[in-house]
Design goal:
The structure is a homodimer of 190-residue chains. By secondary structure, chain A is mainly alpha-helical. Chain A has eight helices and no strands. Chains A and B meet through helix 7 and helix 8 of A and helix 7 and helix 8 of B. The first copy, chain A, binds a DNA duplex (30 and 30 nucleotides) through helix 3.
DNA sequence: CTAGATTGTCTAGCAGTGCTAGAGTTCGGC
DNA sequence: GCCGAACTCTAGCACTGCTAGACAATCTAG
């Protein structure tokens, strides 16, 4: 029956509208500004409509986060293709800086997104796989662990760069040094 | 006048009680459980009393965070005395794991504590100085930047260790590799 | 020892939050 | 045109941080 599929389509569109609007609000004013009331008003529906699509507010943020993982995977791939591990690093930290609200949704806000298990969303693994591919050439054994270390180091810089916790003028130097730790033998480091 | 100082003392004691209770609540049930009502009930005063001591809830969390920085500085010093950069790393990640609520207050929760500027609390610099002392022996130039990189890497591991975002069974291997990156020439790494 | 001013403390309430029950409306199929 | 299902809204609950204004305790001065 066609009416059924039209409804499905309308539902999917509205769901998309909610996610898009939540993202816009978060990127414009931060996640603390994304309340059910403001979001409902913005999409021109009442609050209960949100709950027809998502179990709760966190699920909406998780949907936005999923978009972020897709974008991050793309950005990392491009950065790596352009300039290997150094390009990947630049891409990661660049994305985190340009989209702090997205980065929050993905990594800082407590979320129900599972990471290490088998039912981890595929797109979430993709980003990790990109980092793995970037790190692998420079390690001899246990690339997985090395990748986790490198990613953690990236994540640390991404979060501490915020709020002037690290000297802003040395942002680039920190990124460079991190890459050097993996690609340049210690004896040759400047 | 003695009555004045007694009052001062009573005030200071009550302030201490508030901070201690907030910490206990946070460590037992997480910061989302630390509400003005619960905290007030726990210290057996009404909510407005809290505001006689602190401007808002965040200021209370900041006071707890300050305690955390003191403890972290001590722990880092001991760890470094015991086993250099490796001991310091173990101490840092150990503290973060054993006191997640404290670590949140110090580094994850948005706070008004200033970091990089001149009016940064002394105790906050101490912890950084410890890491600096641990890293310095292994770098030739720009120890400050190297310290920021190392600290960021520690912070990344500390936060991502939570919520099964990194494989729990490789926790130690990640810590070891991070230290190796600084102390062992790349060519000698396993 | 009492009167007055100063402190301290509490009750009650505001404006906001996430979330939901139940009423009301719109719509598709017959 | 009618009925039942799907949908959407209004109104409200229990909570949050925070505060104004009433009340009580305490100290100072005569």
């Amino acid at each position: 029956m066609p009416s059924e599929s039209r409804r499905e389509r309308a539902r999917a569109e509205r769901r998309e509208l909610i996610v898009r609007t939540a993202r816009e609000l978060a990127e414009a004013e931060g996640w603390e500004a994304v309340t059910t009331r403001r979001l409902a008003e913005q999409v021109d529906y009442s609050q209960p409509v949100l709950y027809g699509h998502f179990a709760n507010m966190d699920a909406i943020a998780a949907a936005v986060a999923l978009q972020g993982f897709e974008e991050l995977a793309v950005v990392l791939r491009e950065g790596r293709a352009d300039d290997g591990l150094r390009g990947l690093t630049r891409a990661y930290l660049g994305y985190a800086e340009e989209h702090p609200a997205m980065y929050d949704a993905m990594f800082v806000r407590r979320t129900e997104l599972v990471f290490g298990t088998t039912d981890t969303p595929a797109v979430l693994r993709e980003a990790f796989t990109e980092i793995l591919a970037g790190v692998t050439p420079y390690v001899t054994t246990d690339a997985e662990t090395a990748t986790e270390v490198f990613w953690s180091a990236l994540h640390g810089q991404a979060t501490l760069n915020r709020g002037a916790r690290l000297r802003p003028e040395h942002r680039q130097a920190r990124a460079d040094l991190l890459v050097d730790l993996f690609v340049v033998p210690a004896v040759d480091r400047r």
